[in-house]
């Protein structure tokens, strides 16, 4: 059994801006939604049986209370924001498990789902579909891997070490030091990726750094580490069998009519028949 965990927020952004190349400034109201549905359905058509999608139901999370500069919905285009909730509803109607996050982020849902799934002995591999470097902290050997669809790369623990210079478990410490512009925190001034990796490989976690290495900036580094550390104990599901795709619900027909994508219903019903034939 292979469990596929999809970053719905990333996919929505990817399809929204991908369409911009062809839309001539007119954003289709459900264009990105259709793109994400097609992506997930294609995974199922290619044999994926257990799938979960995480989304940011709201962009803000508990991290905004920790750091005022943390990412918010400010600056996100209204045409894109308007497609988050329709995506969640359409995925659910298609029969896919969705985790719309409010207090936590989609990344936390992916981390928690990966942890729960990896504890099941029946699970051969967990694939986390996102290029977000935060999720590199969840990679474990060859069993929990990160899949970068655009870069066409599968990142196991060795690949994480090669890319960042540290073990997956040290990714929160690494990001705390170098910063993460996408999430809105700057890291520690004067410490780049090479220096960060050297410090972490020498001393381990930031908590173990000698006082002189960070000085007065130690507390700030620990705060950034809190921002970078993903939550893994959210009780999203109890059993991986809950993630098994069994076909679209009766409501999916109306959703495909609403977004003017009737072909998705045909494909999902055909995929359901194929999955039943496989056993």
How many β-strands, per DSSP? 6
Q: State mean pLDDT (0 to 100 scale).
A: 95
| Number of separate helices | 13
Helix content: 40-55%
Helix/strand structural class: alpha/beta
Low-pLDDT stretches are none
Euclidean distance between termini CA atoms: 13 Å
How much of the sequence is in beta strands?
5-15%
Element-level helix/strand string: EHHEHHHEHEEEHHHHHHH
The strands making up the biggest β-sheet line up spatially as: 3-2-1-4-5-6
How would a crystallographer describe the biggest sheet?
A: 6 strands, mixed
Instruction: Tell me the overall shape.
Output: globular
What is the rounded Rg? 20 Å
Top keywords for this entry?
279 residues, alpha/beta, six-stranded mixed sheet, 6 strands
Word description of this protein:
The chain is α/β, with parallel strands linked by helices and 279 residues long. Helices cover 46% and strands 11% of the residues. The protein is built from 13 helices and 6 strands. Strands 3-2-1-4-5-6 form a 6-stranded mixed beta sheet, sandwiched between helices. Strand 5 and strand 6 (153-155) form a beta hairpin. Helix 2 runs parallel beside helix 13. The protein is globular and about 65 Å long.
């Amino acid at each position: 059994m292979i469990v596929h965990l999809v970053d719905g927020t990333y996919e929505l952004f990817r399809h929204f801006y991908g369409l911009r190349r062809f839309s001539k400034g007119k954003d289709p109201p459900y264009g990105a939604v259709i793109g994400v549905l097609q992506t997930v359905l294609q995974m199922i058509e290619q044999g994926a049986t257990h799938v979960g999608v995480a989304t940011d139901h709201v962009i803000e999370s508990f991290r905004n209370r920790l750091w005022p500069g943390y990412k918010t919905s400010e600056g996100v285009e209204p045409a894109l924001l308007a497609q988050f909730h329709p995506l969640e509803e359409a995925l659910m109607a298609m029969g896919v498990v969705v985790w719309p996050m409010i207090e936590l982020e989609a990344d936390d849902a992916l981390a928690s789902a990966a942890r729960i799934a990896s504890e099941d002995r029946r699970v051969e591999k967990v694939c986390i579909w996102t290029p977000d470097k935060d999720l590199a902290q969840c990679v474990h050997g060859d069993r929990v891997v990160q899949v970068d669809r655009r870069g066409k790369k599968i990142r196991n623990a060795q690949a994480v070490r090669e890319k960042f210079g540290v073990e997956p478990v040290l990714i929160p410490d690494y990001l705390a030091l170098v910063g993460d512009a996408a999430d809105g925190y700057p890291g520690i001034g004067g410490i780049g990726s090479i220096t960060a990796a050297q410090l972490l490989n020498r001393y381990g976690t930031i908590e173990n750094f000698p006082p002189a290495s960070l000085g007065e900036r130690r507390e700030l580094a620990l705060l950034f580490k809190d921002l970078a550390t993903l939550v893994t104990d959210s009780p999203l599901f109890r059993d991986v069998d809950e993630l098994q795709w069994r076909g679209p619900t009766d409501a999916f027909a109306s959703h495909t009519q609403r977004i003017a994508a009737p072909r998705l219903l045909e494909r999902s019903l055909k995929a359901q028949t194929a999955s039943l034939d496989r056993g």
